[in-house]
Specification:
Layout: H1 3-21, H2 25-29, E1 37-42, H3 49-53, E2 60-65, H4 75-87, E3 92-98, H5 102-108, H6 117-129, H7 131-135, H8 140-161, H9 163-170, E4 176-182, E5 189-191
Parallel strand pairs: 1-2, 1-3, 3-4
Antiparallel strand pairs: 4-5
The structure holds cobalt (II) ion.
Residues 42, 44, 67, 98, 101-103 line the site of cobalt (II) ion.
Length: 209
């Protein structure tokens, strides 16, 4: 069977196995969602949010784009964030990058890729902010690893700068932002320990009344 036809077959088997475990599986999921987590990850096919975290359908609200970016003019990201924070009332947001990220590797270089160059520009801005530290790392793979980490840190910080997150904190809503890096080579996640749950470390100029 070809790959495409196999997808439909897989789906039928999946439905059958879920119903065998729990005949009410789909009817209870259909009643609504209340996920405690928003996941902002890379579009990379090797980094599936639910599988990595051992979570089930209904537990993670997911937004993915190239290089897990939080771009403050990105209506798609902002809409997802707004809905997750203000309607679903998630308690956690995880920005998850991954070592070996092709988006970051491309952003580190000078090759012209076409339309995507405009997206990579945002990532290049992060490189510039950390260029002193990054340029000192001679090994390209090591430099990319560090770039992945600092990029996640910046995206967490960018989340904290949004009016959506600041308003939630101001209203006393419990909301923690976390930064993770997933290692494709061994499947393990590294918590970068950059968790923020209020605006106390936010630079004054970014604060909104
Ligand atoms: Co990636």
């Amino acid at each position: 069977m070809n790959f495409y036809d196999q997808l439909i077959e897989n789906n039928k088997k999946w439905v059958a196995s879920k119903l065998q475990e729990d005949p009410a599986y789909f009817t209870s999921l259909a009643n609504g969602q209340k996920p405690p987590l928003l996941w902002i990850g890379c579009a990379d096919s090797r980094v599936p949010a639910n599988e990595i975290t051992g979570t089930k359908p209904g537990e993670v609200f997911v937004h993915r784009n190239i290089a897990n970016m939080v771009v403050h003019t990105d209506m798609n990201m902002l809409s997802v964030l707004d809905y997750a924070v203000n309607v679903l009332r998630v308690k956690h947001v995880i920005v998850c990058g991954h070592y070996g990220c092709g988006g970051l590797e491309a952003a580190m270089g000078n090759k012209h890729f076409g339309l995507i160059d405009n997206w990579l520009r945002h990532i290049k801005d992060v490189y510039r902010m950390y260029s002193k530290e990054l340029d000192k790392i001679e090994n390209t793979q090591e430099r990319l690893r560090r770039f992945v980490e600092v990029n996640v840190m910046e995206q967490v910080y960018d989340l904290a700068k949004t009016s959506i997150v600041q308003h939630a904190w101001r209203n006393g809503q419990e909301l923690e932002l976390h930064g993770w890096v997933y290692d494709i080579k061994n499947g393990l996640v590294k918590d970068l320990d950059v968790t923020v749950s209020d605006d106390s470390n936010l630079e004054e100029v970014y604060k909104v009344d």
